[in-house]
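Good morning,

Attaching, inline, the backbone tokens for the sequence recovery test we're adding to the shared suite. The designed sequence is right after.
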């Protein structure tokens, strides 16, 4: 058992080396013979074959040239003008610009058993043209499929509250997993973003009712605190006024002024405050 565990990393490293080390061998004798015959045919039919031999690669592209099934010099060419033999050479252009694509909406079951529909967007670019051609049949299509499965796997371990509040953390986790998986393909995942999270209608109504109940409870607490603060202020004001009789009379006059400001109002003046205080003392 221990021997198997020790040998498995070596096997993995060897397989990874086989993926990356492409085009290291040269042509055989038969290959060189076919190559020379191709060159001879090309020279015989000049200048008609010149249009099939000259290839132009743009600044943002790289060319991977296969000669009888092997990559020439084990590296990509470009940018610029290249001369190939049409019978033995095959040219594959690789775009190095950043490519973006939308992840189709996915029906995902979260950790707390809630079904949501989530979509996103992925930005990636090719950093190793040789690996993107030799190690995977279609790097763009494979990355799209891998993004969909990674989105399901990552969101399947999250609760609904985490999905709604921690989108940045989920994006970083998806980017790390995608970048690690596409590294043997020569692809660098630059950014992953969650675009939209669609909840079921019943769950939306339940969350709206919960939010409304929370707001109402908070409003009642705030109103109760306001009443308590107002009663304390009134108590302090009554204590201050009771200590000063002139202050009570000024408050009485201020109340009369406020009443007089109203239109169509009848004001009944009671006995003067001084007379009332005289009887109260007796």
């Amino acid at each position: 058992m221990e021997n198997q565990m020790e040998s498995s990393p070596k096997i993995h490293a060897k397989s990874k080396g086989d993926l990356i080390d492409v085009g290291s061998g040269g042509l055989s004798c038969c290959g060189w013979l076919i190559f020379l015959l191709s060159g001879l045919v090309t020279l015989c039919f000049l200048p008609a074959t010149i249009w099939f031999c000259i290839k132009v690669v743009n600044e943002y592209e790289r060319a991977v040239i296969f000669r009888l099934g092997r990559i020439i010099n084990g590296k990509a060419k470009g940018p610029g003008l290249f001369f190939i033999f049409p019978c033995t050479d095959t040219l594959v252009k690789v775009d190095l610009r950043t490519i973006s694509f939308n992840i189709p909406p996915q029906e995902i079951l979260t950790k707390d058993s809630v079904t949501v529909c989530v979509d996103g967007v992925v930005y990636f670019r090719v950093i190793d043209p040789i690996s993107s051609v030799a190690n995977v049949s279609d790097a763009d299509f494979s990355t799209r499929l891998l993004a969909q499965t990674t989105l399901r796997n990552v969101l399947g371990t999250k609760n609904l509250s985490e999905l709604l509040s921690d989108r940045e953390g989920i994006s970083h986790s998806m980017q790390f997993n995608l970048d690690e998986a596409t590294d043997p393909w020569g692809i660098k995942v630059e950014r992953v973003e969650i675009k939209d999270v669609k909840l079921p209608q019943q769950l939306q109504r339940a969350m709206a009712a919960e939010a409304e109940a929370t707001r109402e409870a908070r409003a009642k607490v705030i109103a109760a605190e306001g009443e308590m603060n107002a009663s304390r202020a009134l108590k302090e004001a009554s204590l201050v006024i009771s200590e000063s009789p002139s202050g009570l009379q000024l408050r009485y006059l201020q109340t009369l002024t406020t009443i007089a400001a109203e239109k169509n109002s009848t004001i009944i003046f009671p006995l003067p405050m001084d007379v009332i205080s005289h009887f109260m003392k007796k």
